[in-house]
Amino acid sequence: MKTDKANQTIVFVSNDIDNFRHHRKHLVDVAVEMDKNVIVMAGGNGTPPANCYHKKIEINRFRLHWSDFNIIFSIIKSILYYRPEILHLINLKPYLYGGVAAQVAKLLGWRGNLVVSVPGLGRLYDTQNLTAAKKMRLRVVELVLRACLRDATICFETSSDRDFWIERRLTVIDRTELTNGTGIDLEQFHPPEKRHSDRRLKVLYAGRLLKAKGLDVFLAAAKTCGMENVDMIVAGQTEADPDGVSENTLREHPEVLFLGRVDDMPRLLGQADVVVLPSRYNEGVPRILIEAAACGCVTVATDFPGSRALIKEGVTGFFLQRSTKESQANEIVSIIEKLSKNPTMIKVIGNNAIEHIRKEGFASDAVKSAFHRIYSQ
Questions:
Q1: pLDDT value of residue 61
Q2: Which residues form the Glycosyl transferase family domain (predicted)?
Q3: What average pLDDT does this structure show over 162-179?
Q4: Do domains 3-183+363-376 and 201-359 have the same CATH topology?
Q5: Gap between the Cα atoms of 352 and 145, Å rounded
Q6: How confident is the model at residue 4 (pLDDT cuts 50, 70, 90)?
Q7: Which of 128 and 69 is assigned the larger pLDDT?
Q8: How would you classify the pairing of strands 201-206 and 113-118?
Q9: Contacts of 179 (CB under 8 A, 6+ apart)
Q10: How many helices (H) and strands (E) does the chain have?
Q11: In 90-117, which positions are buried (b, 16+ CB within 10 angstroms) versus exposed (e)?
């Protein structure tokens, strides 16, 4: 790390270093291209991206606790020690506590800039399970965000999320930026020269093994599908999340092939025909859907703003309605039956999806250019 350029440093704060490396490596690339020092404050024990220093902090994503004050103190100390030109906060707890830390650091003389990435509204705004306690917690969180992010540049993946924040008076439009998700390398994610020819339809769920992501819906669809020429595949890593689905639970579903963690996603997507994401909360633009579309897969996802950026009904994929687990599972089975009888439809929709991804700015270069401009400002 270039210790002689402390004022040309970007400090990132994120929940998990593995997630940061997978979804935000392009931000490190931009910072390095701009000749910045890069420090990533994140939880987890994974491997950080190249060209950055990983400063580990403990972040429990699933509850608010008095011990979280340690996160605020750690960020304050890092700001005052490194004096970063930019503090870039990603995920809810980082921009909640990082926002508080930034305001304290400014009182102590820091004059850097604050950038926030909002990957989606997340489970905080899961209106289906909004109890009185959650409503109160939501009010407190929004109060803190209004106070601490008033001078931040807020980056959104969808105009819907941006408008929602503006309506809730969490920011103003002049302080917002729009980017097309996290961006992918189209040299890496591309359609295979030749897909499998065994006439079996391969349907994939790939991502965090969470019920809120719709894994329970996918498992219900697999249980009721009962088609001999269809392979239902799950890829992902178990994690310590109260909403998580365990490997033991997945093993209780013999109709599903569970692969566990998969590092070579381009190869896996090159073997898949359909990728399903029945998420129950409002995400940004899901990376797995971008990757799947770029590889020529038919994408099937719950109808939310992030999926609308990628899916045109019947043209580049299919929507699932926000409804019960059973009805969504039945929708998935109906789509699978339709596609299994019409291989030509799979090819046409896949080609449409590839064209959409390449034309609409989902490549990593386009997203990197956007953040180069943001950091330069």
A1: 64
A2: 191-339
A3: 92
A4: yes
A5: 40
A6: very low
A7: 69
A8: unpaired
A9: 155, 156, 157, 367, 370, 371
A10: 13, 13
A11: bbbbbbbbbbbbbbbbeeeebebbbbbb
Residue whose tokens read 């687990």: 325
CATH 3.40.50.2000 holds for 3-183+363-376: yes
Both structure tokens of 363 = 């490549």
DSSP state string for 10-67:
EEEEEEEHHHHHHHHHHHHHHHHHTT-EEEEEEESSSPPPTTSEEEE----TT---GG
At 179, list the tokens.
Answer: 């980017």
Phi and psi at residue 375, to the nearest 5°: -65, -35
Tokens of 234: 């799950």
The residue extents of the domains of the chain are 3-183+363-376, 201-359
Of 373, 286, 377, residue with least CA distance to 30: 373
Backbone angles phi and psi of 88, in degrees to 5: -110, 115
Res 123 pLDDT > 80: no
- Residue 309 DSSP class: T
Q: Which residues of 226-260 are buried (b: 16+ CB within 10 A; e: fewer)?
A: eeeebbbbbbbebeeeebbbeeeebeebeebebee
> In this structure, how many other beta carbons lie within 10 angstroms of the beta carbon of residue 225?
19
| Residue 377 binned pLDDT confidence (cut-offs 50, 70, 90) | confident
